[in-house]
Design goal:
Chain B: This is Importin subunit alpha. The complex is a heterodimer of chains A (570) and B (521). Chain A has 570 residues and is of the alpha/beta class. Chain A has helices at residues 6-14, 27-42, 55-65, 83-87, 106-110, 123-128, 132-135, 163-187, 196-206, 212-227, 233-256, 284-290, 292-298, 303-316, 320-324, 332-348, 371-382, 393-407, 412-438, 465-482, 485-491, 526-537, 558-569, and strands at 19-24, 47-52, 71-75, 94-98, 101-102, 115-117, 191-192, 266-274, 355-363, 367-370, 442-443, 448-451, 496-503, 508-514, 541-542, 550-554. Chain B is 69% helix and 0% strand. Classes of the chains: A alpha/beta (570), B mainly alpha (521). Chains A and B meet through helix 7 and helix 8 of A and helix 3, helix 5, helix 8, helix 11 and helix 14 of B.
């Protein structure tokens, strides 16, 4: 059920308890976790942290920890899974779910105890949930009898019902039909709600325990959702506005005290920044070559595209040597003017959305980082490919690294993550180029399809969900931009299905689907489509990720699965 | 020890395989599984719209209308019984009607309470009121619903002397009374073989069949067909031969009926008959219905298909000649569709059907091969739900017994060995045994040709067989030991043999061409 007063009904309930926190492996969940940890520290709450990347992890870790912990917090996992059914908890276990995955499972929403959802009140989301009466109703048990399944044998005795009961049965059948339809509609799309970190931040604020550090994590959470295309621009702007409000409130008081805030405190600035990946930690040139909007606009993988990019730089009036110079060592004058220069040049080249509202944090004189770069870094840490993966310990050590990277903006891990992120972006860019050159993106009718081959370079990056997802977005946008006008008009409305090797030894692929470029709502219909296609073809799939639009499956079943997907979606 | 390890007498082996083919195993065990499974399914369905009670507010049931105004049950029943005895016709009719209503609403009908209140003799008396058809109708309805309960409850209706009266009502000039009597008799016949034969002995069949005429309303005809199903149901003992003789022409007619419900029931009736032993199978074949039954395998309604697969599947559990009757109707052309049907159940029964064909003579085995069905069987063997895999294992194993060298070689060429060996890891002893039998037969037919032994070794089958030598089941470890002993061990050359085989296998280009003679043993 929904908690209306999370301070009283959630936080005060766990104050003297041992708490188990299960954290999904995404930046937003980690940010939420950091905020929670700092709240726990204030109140000396004992807690155990457990990273969970899939539903099966959730089940396993729950089994392992359920004896010691009766209060369980789920960060970015659990809302869209029937927890009572999946985990079968004893009556003294309570779950607090802070999760952005939608749609919310209806049992979670309507059960009266044990599962508590902490959401930010979003009327639209609540309105979408079917009414209780529509989906639940008590019936007498003996009413069940007459309905014959397809494969049951004929009944040997039959009672004759009167009109009234026949009517009731009919009414019930109709109700069930209606129910099925309503639930189908409700579950048709998966999407993301308010991010977890913002919800936990909200809780801190209600208890007057918020500060710049906690706010920074909330900012990173919102940025993560936007950067990984889980939410559209509109939703992002709404989030930014809210965060900006908190920022001015928190920093207003300090200004009054005669600017007394020490340089050793963290500062947060709101700014209209360039939406270019890692440019402060790279060179402007490299950043332009690896940011989604410029990659696709210039088609940087082609010679002509490269020429255009050079023209663009020339137009800006910054010498190429400066552009290729590390940002840190760029001429200060140019650096200070960079934003205006880029923007002016961008206007001439018809580049839109090159600037966006964002935040940056500063700590001391040396350490400044903008929110999106921090997100790149932490994501890179989370999906770091470590060569020595022993018994799936990589997830856990990546989790620890990523948390460490988030702990302070001056943390060395953050730097490490930035370097990793560059490698990953390079892998993305290189593959986008080859994929489009070789014509590896195919139109399958209702969707575009592409697959990463086992032998292709850097394929390992793409066996991880977040990276695969980011790559698909780069690819889709670049592909659509590379088409002629009439084709583009069509392709802009097509979703993309991508397939990559996941576990070569076991012969397992990972498959993800993303919504069309034109759809800013980011609603994803692949979760259900995948389930149907798998059922129809009896493919051996595993729908284990919290995001239902990403699945894994046996390689051999792939072609018939994709065939069925085409039929379903046509 | 030595004695125990002696190779089995071929005759004895043949006998065992005959046993597989015949009833004992299949129809019975499968049917039990089906019932369990459908109960399971049903449970799931229910759970779906009932949240766990402990966590959920229990909604007010707005449907509750009837109970609110009721008096305590027993009191009410006493009134009803008293009024039902009344001399006043209107009072009596309304009391019987009330009793009928209690029994025909959808929530727990108070059958036992009513029986205890002594209403049965009164209702049975009402059946005799030829002057008052509404009363007869209401009483018949009430009795129908009482008889729809447990065996005990059905028996109570019979004990009250209702059956002869119902039979008389079949001649009533009021159709609703006739129909209700048919329904009531259906419930009584459906109780089991004893009551079925009792009702038959009182002469139900002829008047029942009289109703099958063009003028009968469809709902009535559905009821009649359903009663015929019940007459055919239950095989311990099966219904009397003369009854079957009487029913079969009707079934031959009804199988052409356009109504799906009637068609489904007709086919089920045939499937019950064909489940009753080779004599009954012969009666069904002689009725000439088989050519009309076979096309229903690819009917558009899954319900019809399910029943049809069962019916033809039962027929091919019979003798080779009986099996041939079905094959003569070009039955195999329907199987590509059935083997790729979206319902697991249908896949399973289709493979079961084929397993009984491959248990037949060599020309029947050849028919399965010629119909191109082997790859699909192997597909089910390697990946399907376990029940279907199991049937596929039977199909292959049977083929290795009844097929000739070339036929078995063909199946090996099609890649049967790896998936077949995989099933050695199954938890189900019966399957393991069936697979071991099959492997042993294949190896025997292979004779000097070592390619098969190599394949078994390469796919890890040999390791599995070796492991099975430690199996707790005596039969299994004996079989496993036998195979190892005969085909994989002994002389030191034997050790080397398979390895040479590996080389040969990899470098011999003819291996890549399945049509080449490599597998000819």
């Amino acid at each position: 059920m929904l908690l209306t007063d999370p301070v009283k009904d959630f936080f005060h309930k766990i104050v003297h308890q041992r708490v188990l926190v299960m954290v999904a492996l995404d930046v937003d969940a980690l940010c939420a976790c950091k905020i929670l940890q700092s709240l726990f520290r204030c109140d000396n709450i004992q807690y155990t942290l457990v990273p969970v990347s899939k539903k099966s992890d959730l089940v396993r870790e729950y089994e392992e920890h359920k004896e010691q912990n009766k209060h369980i917090i789920l960060l970015n996992c659990g809302a869209n899974i029937d927890l009572l059914n999946t985990l079968d908890p004893s009556e003294d276990v309570t779950f607090y779910v802070i999760d952005s995955h939608r749609p919310i499972d209806l049992v979670n929403f309507y059960c009266e105890r044990q599962v508590y959802l902490i959401l930010k009140h979003n009327q639209q989301e609540i309105d979408a949930i079917p009414d209780y009466d529509v989906i639940y109703r008590e019936y007498d048990s003996d009413e069940e009898e007459s309905e014959g399944d397809d494969d049951t044998e004929q009944v040997s005795k039959r009672r004759r019902f009167d009109e009234a009961s026949l009517m009731r049965k009919k009414e019930r059948r109709e109700w069930e039909e209606r129910r099925k339809e309503i639930i189908f509609d409700y579950e048709e799309f998966s999407y993301y709600g308010t991010c977890a970190s913002l919800i936990v931040y909200d809780l801190a604020w209600r208890m007057s325990k918020d500060n710049n550090e906690l706010l920074w994590w909330a900012i990173a959470g919102v940025t993560d959702q936007f950067q990984n295309k889980r939410i559209g621009r509109d939703r992002y702007v709404t989030g930014v506005l809210e965060l900006q409000g908190h920022m001015s409130r928190l920093n207003h008081a300090n200004e009054d005290e005669d600017n007394s805030k020490s340089i050793d405190c963290m500062r947060i600035n709101f700014e209209h920044d360039l939406d270019l990946a890692l440019y402060r930690h790279w060179s402007l040139f490299e950043s332009l070559c690896h940011s989604i909007s410029t990659v696709s606009a210039f088609k940087v993988w082609t010679n002509i595209g490269m020429k255009k990019l050079h023209q663009f730089l020339a137009e800006m009036g910054i010498p190429l040597t400066q552009c290729k110079q590390n940002y840190e060592f760029m001429d200060t004058k140019m650096r200070d003017n960079l934003q205006t220069l880029v923007e002016e040049s961008a206007l001439k080249f018809g580049l839109k959305n090159l600037k966006f509202q964002s935040f940056s944090a500063q700590y001391g004189f040396n350490h400044k980082i903008c929110a999106s770069d921090a997100v790149y870094s932490v994501n890179a840490l989370l999906e770091n490919i470590k060569l020595t993966d022993t018994n799936g310990m990589t997830d856990k050590s990546n989790f620890v690294d990523a948390l460490e990277g988030l702990s302070r903006i001056s943390a060395p891990k953050m730097k490490e993550g930035l370097e990793l992120a560059k490698l990953q972006l390079q892998a993305i860019r290189n593959n986008v180029g080859t994929f489009i050159d070789v014509g590896q993106v195919l139109s399958y009718g209702p969707f575009l399809y592409t697959s990463i081959k086992e032998g292709s370079p850097d394929y390992k990056y793409f066996s991880h969900p977040t990276h695969l997802n980011l790559f698909s977005h780069y690819l889709l946008q670049s592909y659509v931009r590379s088409l002629g006008k009439s084709k583009r008009e069509k392709a802009i409305h097509l979703p993309l299905v991508i397939c990559a090797p996941c576990d070569i030894e076991e012969g397992i692929s990972i498959i993800a689907g993303i919504p069309p470029l034109a759809d800013d709502s980011r609603k994803n219909l692949f979760g259900n489509a995948f389930i149907h296609a798998a059922e129809r073809t009896k493919s051996r799939t595993s729908h284990d990720y919290f995001d239902s639009s990403i699945i894994t499956m046996k390689n051999e079943d792939r072609s018939k699965f994709i065939d069925a997907l085409i039929t379903i979606m046509t | 020890m030595n004695g125990a390890l002696e190779t089995m007498d071929p005759k004895q082996e043949y006998h065992r395989f005959k046993n597989w083919k015949h009833k004992g195993r299949d129809a019975e065990t499968m049917r039990r599984q089906r019932n369990e499974m459908s109960v399971e399914l049903r449970k799931q369905k229910r759970g779906d719209h009932l949240l766990k009670r402990r966590n959920v507010p229990i909604a007010d049931d707005s449907l509750d209308e009837s109970d609110s105004e009721t008096k305590p049950m027993s009191l009410k029943l006493d009134d009803i019984v008293a009024n039902a005895k009344s001399d006043d016709e209107t009072v009596q009719l309304s009391a019987v009607q009330q009793a009928r209503k209690l029994l025909s609403s959808d929530r727990n009908p108070p059958i036992d309470d009513l029986i205890r209140s002594g209403i049965l003799p009164i209702l049975v008396q009402c059946l005799q009121r030829d002057d008052h058809s509404s009363l007869q109708f209401e009483a018949a309805w009430a009795l129908t619903n009482i008889a729809s309960g447990t065996s005990q409850q059905t028996q109570a209706v019979v004990d009250a002397g209702a059956v002869p009266l119902f039979l008389k009502l079949l001649n009533s000039e009021h159709q609703n009374v006739c129909e209700q009597a048919v329904w009531a008799l259906g419930n009584i016949i459906g109780d089991g073989p004893a009551l079925r034969d009792y009702v038959i002995s009182l002469g139900v069949v002829q008047p029942l069949l009289m109703f099958i005429n063009p003028d009968i309303p469809i709902s009535f005809l559905r009821n009649v067909t359903w009663v015929i199903v019940n007459l055919c149901r239950n095989k311990d003992p099966p219904p009397p031969a003369e009854t079957i003789h009487a029913l079969l022409p009707a079934l031959c007619e009804l199988i052409h009926h356009p109504d799906t419900n009637i068609l489904v029931d007709t086919v089920w009736a045939l499937s019950y008959l064909t489940d009753g032993g080779n004599e009954l199978i012969q009666l069904v074949i002689d009725s000439g219905v088989v050519p009309f039954l076979v096309p229903l395998l690819t009917h558009s309604e899954v319900k019809v298909q399910t029943a049809a697969v069962r019916a033809v599947g039962n027929i091919v559990t019979g003798t080779d000649d009986q099996t041939q009757e079905v094959l003569n109707c070009d039955v195999l052309k329907h199987f590509p569709a059935l083997l790729s049907h979206h319902k697991d159940k249908i896949n399973k029964e289709a493979v079961w059907f084929l397993s009984n064909i491959t248990a037949g003579n060599q020309s029947q085995v050849q028919a399965v091969i010629d119909a191109g069905l082997i790859p699909q069987i192997i597909m089910h063997l390697s990946k399907s739900d376990f029940q279907t895999q199991k049937e596929a294992a039977w199909a292959i194993s049977n083929l290795t017994i009844s097929g000739n060298k070339e036929q078995v070689a063909f199946v090996v060429e099609q890649g049967v060995i790896p998936p077949f060996c995989n099933l050695l890891m199954a938890k189900d002893n019966q399957v393991v045994q069936v697979v071991l039998d099959g492997i042993s037969n294949i190896l025997k037919l292979a004779g000097e040709n070592e390619a098969v032994a190599t394949m078994i070794e390469e796919c890890g089958g040999l390791d599995k067989i070796e492991m099975l030598q430690n199996h707790e089941n005596e039969e299994i470890y004996k079989l496993a030991y036998e195979i190892i002993d005969q085909f994989f061990s002994g002389d030191p050359d034997g050790e080397l043999g398979p390895e040479e085989g590996v080389m040969g296998y990899q470098f011999d280009p003819s291996m890549a061409l399945p049509t080449d003679g490599e597998f000819k043993f």
